[in-house]
Design a protein that fits this description.
This protein is mainly beta. It is about 5% helix and about 40% strand. The chain has one domain: Immunoglobulin-like (Sandwich). The protein is built from 1 helix and 12 strands, in the order ββββββββαββββ. The strands form 2 sheets. Strands 2, 3, 4, 5, 7, 8, 9 and 11 form an 8-stranded antiparallel beta sheet that branches. A 4-stranded antiparallel beta sheet has the order 1-12-6-10, with no helix packed on it. It starts with a strand and ends with a strand.
């Protein structure tokens, strides 16, 4: 059964089916690479990164009973597009992701234990781990342990493109 489907953009997702629930954390508004004081410049051939420890990283929280099998499918993109031009301008995009399923209910603790996923693969299978009774690890709620999926990436190198709003959708599906 598919739990939910997410497009990377300005979307907020909370989904629940049975005893499994998923939500986007941290008020996510999209992987925004352009930063105040560090604009992206057309033709500079630079790359811009959002890493796993960046506050702009997408964090998906999955809560389910221990030992629940999950399958995550990522339909990746390789570029972002500016559709105001004809033909559309594009900038290369390389996605990265990491997953933590160590029975840690604290997102910050889990981020430090996350294992990078192979970007050449788009299907991943996991079984929810048992809760770890560690100092600072919040107790499970309603017998659900948490797992976290982190999505981030690299934009560029930036070639000569027309300035504008570049976007694309990347679908992430969680099945159980």
């Amino acid at each position: 059964m598919m739990l939910w489907n997410l497009m990377l953009g300005n979307h907020s997702v909370i989904a629940q089916r049975g005893t499994v629930q998923a939500r986007v954390m941290n008020g996510y508004t999209g992987l925004i690479f352009n930063q105040i004081g560090a604009p992206i410049i057309s033709g500079n051939q630079q790359s811009y990164n959002i890493t796993i420890h960046d506050s702009r990283t997408l964090v998906l929280e999955i809560a389910a009973p221990a030992r629940t099998p999950l399958m995550i499918q990522i339909q990746p993109i390789t570029e972002i597009l500016n559709h105001t031009n004809s033909p559309p301008s594009s900038i290369p995009f390389a996605w990265e992701a990491a997953f933590c399923n160590e029975g840690l209910n604290d997102e910050r603790m889990a981020r430090n234990q996350a294992v990078p996923l192979d970007p050449n693969q788009n299907n991943f299978q996991f079984e929810m781990s048992d809760y770890q009774n560690l100092p600072g690890n919040p107790a499970p709620v309603e017998n659900r342990v948490k797992a976290f999926l982190y999505v981030y990436g690299r934009l560029g190198p930036i070639g000569p493109v027309t300035p504008g709003y570049f976007t694309n959708s990347m679908n992430i599906e969680v099945w159980y």
